[in-house]
Amino acid sequence: MTTPAPFSGPVGVGFIGTGVISDQYLTNLTTFPDLEVLILGDLNTEVAAAQAEKYGIPASGTAQDVLDHPGVQVVVNLTIPAVHAEISAAAVAAGKHVWTEKPLGLDRESTSALLTQADEAGLRIGCAPDTVLGAGVQTAKRAILDGLIGRPLFAQTSMQWQGPEVFHPNPAFLFAKGAGPLLDIGPYYFTTLVSLFGTVEKVAAMGLKAQEEREILVGPKKGEKFPVEPPSTISVLTQFEGGQTGTSLVSFDSPLARQGIVEIHGTEGSLVVPDPNMFEGRVAYVRPFASFGEAPPEQEWVEVPAAGPANGRGLGLLDMVRAIQEGRPHVASGEVGYHVLDIMLSAEESAASGEFVTVDSSVAEVPAVPADFDPLARTL
Question: Where in this chain does the record put each Gfo/Idh/MocA-like oxidoreductase N-terminal domain (predicted)?
Answer without folding.
Answer: 12-125
